[in-house]
Amino acid sequence: MKKIILLYLFAITFSLTAQYSKAPTMAPILTNGYYINFRGDTIKGQVQINPPNKTDFYKQFGFQKKNTRKAKLMLAQKTKAYGFDNRHFVMINYDDKKIFVERLATGRLNFYEYRFNDNTNKDIESESYFFIEDSGENNSDKGTQSPKKITYKFYKKNLKPFMKEQPQIWNELDKFNFDEKSVISAVNEYNKNYTTTSY
C-alpha cells in the first residue's frame, strides 16, 4: 500500500513539474487583415500581430478566416501577399526560397524591407535587407522588373538604373551613407509622376 501511495505522489509531482516547466505562450492578438492567394483571390479575416518573433512576419503569419475559431499558419510558399493595419507584405523569390517583404513605398517603384535574425551577432535583434523593383507597364529593362537587393555600400549605384528617368532625385541622395528614410522619401518623390495600382 505504501508503494502505491508513493507512486501516486511521484506521478502527481512529475505531472505538476512538467506543467510548470513549459514556456509560457501569449494568446494570439488578432486584427483585421487580408491575404491574396495564387489565384488572385483576396480573403478577408484577421491576422495575428503578436508572433513569437517579429521577424516571423517575413516568413509566415497567423490568419483566422471569418466564421472560424482558430488561426491557421500561412506560409510564403502558399500566399501571394497579405496585410494588416496599413502594413503590406508581398511574396518574392530570394536566394532560392520564397519570403515576405514589407512594402515601404508603393508606385511605379516599389521599395521593400526583409527582416531576419542574425544568429552570428547576438547584440543585434534583427538585420534588414532592402529591395527595389520597377512595376511600370512600359518598362522594358528586364533587370529592374523584379525585386533587386540593395547593398548598403553601393546602394546609390544599385538605385541608378531604377531612377534614370528622374536623375535629379537620384543625385540628391547621399553618395556614401544609406539612410532608409531618405530612400523611401526619394522613391515616393519619384512615384509622384506616375499612376500605378498595387495591392
Shape estimate:
globular
State the separation between the terminal residues, measured CA to CA: 71 Å
What is the succession of H and E elements?
Answer: HEEEEEEEEEEHHH
Helix/strand-derived category reads: alpha+beta
Rounded to an integer, what's the Rg over CA atoms? 23 Å
What percent of the residues sit in helical stretches (DSSP H or I)? Answer: 10-25%
Q: What is the overall number of helices?
A: 4
Spans of at least 5 consecutive residues with low confidence: 6-14, 16-23
Main pleated sheet: 10 strands, antiparallel
Count of distinct strands: 10
Mean pLDDT: 86
| Number of domain modules | 2
User: How much β-strand is present in the residues?
Assistant: 25-35%
Strands ordered across the widest β-sheet: 4-3-2-1-5-6-7-8-9-10
List keywords for this structure.
199 residues, alpha+beta, 10-stranded antiparallel sheet, 4 helices, 32% strand
Describe this structure in words.
The chain is an alpha+beta fold and 199 residues long. It is 21% helix and 32% strand. The protein has 2 domains: 27-75, no CATH class; 86-199, no CATH class. The chain is globular and about 55 Å long.
In short:
21% of the residues lie in helices and 32% in strands. With 199 residues, it is α+β, with helices and mostly antiparallel strands. The chain folds into 2 domains: 27-75, no CATH class; 86-199, no CATH class.
Question: Any chance you could write out the topology, listing elements then pairs?
Answer:
Blueprint: H1 2-21, E1 30-36, E2 42-48, E3 60-65, E4 72-75, E5 81-84, E6 87-94, E7 97-105, E8 109-116, E9 127-134, E10 148-150, H2 155-159, H3 167-171, H4 180-191
Antiparallel strand pairs: 1-2, 1-5, 2-3, 3-4, 5-6, 6-7, 7-8, 8-9, 9-10
